[in-house]
Amino acid sequence: MHPVLKKNYGAWSWHDRPRPGVLHHVAKSGDEIWTVRAGTQRQMDLFTIRLLMDIADEFAEGYVRFTIRSNIEFMVSEESKVQPLIDKLTEHGFPIGGTGNSVSMISHTQGWLHCDIPGTDASGAVKALMDELIEEYTKEEMPNRVRMTTSCCQINCGGQGDIAINIQHTKPPRIDHDQVANVCERPTVVARCPVAAIRPAMVNGKPSLEIDEKKCICCGACFPPCPPMQINDPEHSKFAIWVGGKNSNARSKPTFHKLVAAGIPNNPPRWPEVSAVVKQILNAYKEDAKDWERIGEWAERIGWSRFFEKTGLPFTKYHIDNWRGGRANLNASAHIRF
């Protein structure tokens, strides 16, 4: 923590944003500190980390911190140091922004590089999408802040977001029964299933597993402890986009996001179909929402039928659900039913 932050912890008088990507805080003691926020790739190589630390040492008094959305923040105690820091970061390709009413960097899961369960590469989809939205990151022209998430499986450790981009498996795992006994600890696999859809079985005289497909929610949780239960499928694993999620309780309570688009091709390395849908939603939101409305608040105000009209997204029977319908399609949710 920067010494000025330590000294004035909990004793700040006011703050403002001199420009997008720069925060200015003034303490009751009169001390001032400027924070410059830059976007980074979440999964960084050693060269990039050393470069950022060298910039911090030379231009930012040696203090940095990372945000949950992979932004890096450099803190300086003199206004004269702000512009040279911005110039150096820009020179090396790190965009300045992500503050105020902007599209911040996208919070995402590990993807192919680290995770043992992904149906897609969340970090790759983020890179492709932020290339399209870079101006919305460096400017503050949205009605309110936009927080986006991407998850590479349906377990969704990416969390809730104004716009969430998640992979969906639509078919139960295909089991290679010849390999299960050699590779998998069957009790672990059974315990891993959140809806109790997996049970031990004997197949062709060998210990194996079987799936109750009426219970299976196609989440993919069984795949990491048992690779012979292959669920990734180039045809049936698709992207889905959800909107209206919110973690904060500022001005309105936290909300879960809602499905607005499904069956979008999982098409690396640039995922153009995903980017097109997200931009449709953002353009409609930017044009129609009132000041300070989050995307979910905007959709609730105009009604979900008008949301689909304004965004140009198709509305299908799969978007309709209520408690009565929920009882019928419980096996397609994460609720446990034994």
Automatic annotation (TrEMBL):
Q: Which keywords label this protein? A: 4Fe-4S, Iron, Iron-sulfur, Metal-binding, Oxidoreductase
Identify one Gene Ontology CC term for this UniProt entry.
Answer: sulfite reductase complex (NADPH)
- InterPro entries with a match to the protein in the record: 4Fe4S_Fe-S-bd (IPR017896), 4Fe4S_Fe_S_CS (IPR017900), DsrB (IPR011808), NiRdtase/SiRdtase_haem-b_fer (IPR005117), Nit/Sulf_reduc_fer-like_dom_sf (IPR036136), NO2/SO3_Rdtase_4Fe4S_dom (IPR006067), NO2/SO3_Rdtase_4Fe4S_prot (IPR045169), NO2/SO3_Rdtase_4Fe4S_sf (IPR045854)
Matching entries from Pfam families are given as: NIR_SIR (PF01077), NIR_SIR_ferr (PF03460)
Q: EC number(s) on record?
A: 1.8.99.5
Q: Which GO terms describe its biological process?
A: sulfate assimilation
- GO molecular function annotation: 4 iron, 4 sulfur cluster binding; dissimilatory sulfite reductase (NADH) activity; electron transfer activity; heme binding; metal ion binding; sulfite reductase (ferredoxin) activity; sulfite reductase activity
What is its EC class?
A: oxidoreductase
User: Needs which cofactor?
Assistant: siroheme; [4Fe-4S] cluster
- Which top-rank group of organisms is this from? Bacteria
Q: Which residues form the 4Fe-4S ferredoxin-type domain?
A: 207-236
Name the record gives this protein: Dissimilatory sulfite reductase, beta subunit
Q: Which organism is it from?
A: endosymbiont of Tevnia jerichonana
